[in-house]
Amino acid sequence: MKLPVVSLLLVLAGAAVAADVSGKWTASFETQIGTQNYTYEFKVDGQKLTGTAKSMNGETKITDGKVVGDEITFVENLNFQDMMLMITYKGKISGDEIKFTRDVAGIAMEELVAKRVK
C-alpha cells in the first residue's frame, strides 16, 4: 500500500522541477508589422528565469521570468519607436521547442515557436 503513495509523490515532485531551458533559442514569426526574428538567451536558477530577448528592435532584459515544470513565463519590456511596450510571454516547453503566446501591450496576441540552438 505504501509503494503506490511513494510512486505518486515521486511523480508529483518530478512535475514541479523546472525544465532546463538555459541557453540560446531562436524564433521567426509573422506579426502586424512583418516578420520578426528573435534570439532569446535564457538562464534558469531553480524556477527563476533571466536572460535577454534580441530582435531587430534591440536587446532587452527578460523580467518576471519563471519556469515551473514545462510552463515558462516572462516579460520583455521593448522600446519600439520611443514607445515602451510590455510583451508578456506564456509558453509550453517540449524538448527543444517552446510554443509561446505573447501579449503585446494588450494590442496584439501572437503565437510563435522558439527552437533551441544546438
List keywords for this structure.
single chain, mainly beta, Lipocalin, eight-stranded antiparallel beta barrel
Give a short synopsis of this structure:
With 118 residues, the chain is mainly β. The chain has one domain (18-116): Lipocalin (Beta Barrel), CATH 2.40.128.120. Helix content is 13%, strand content 67%.
Give the helices and strands as they follow along the chain.
HEEEEEEEE
CATH superfamily: Quinohemoprotein amine dehydrogenase alpha subunit, domain 2
Task: Tell me the name of the CATH class.
Answer: Mainly Beta
CATH architecture descriptor: Beta Barrel
Number of strand segments: 8
**How far from one another are the termini?**
45 Å
Detailed description of the structure:
The protein has 1 helix and 8 strands. It has 118 residues and is mainly beta. The protein has one domain (18-116): Quinohemoprotein amine dehydrogenase alpha subunit, domain 2 (Lipocalin).
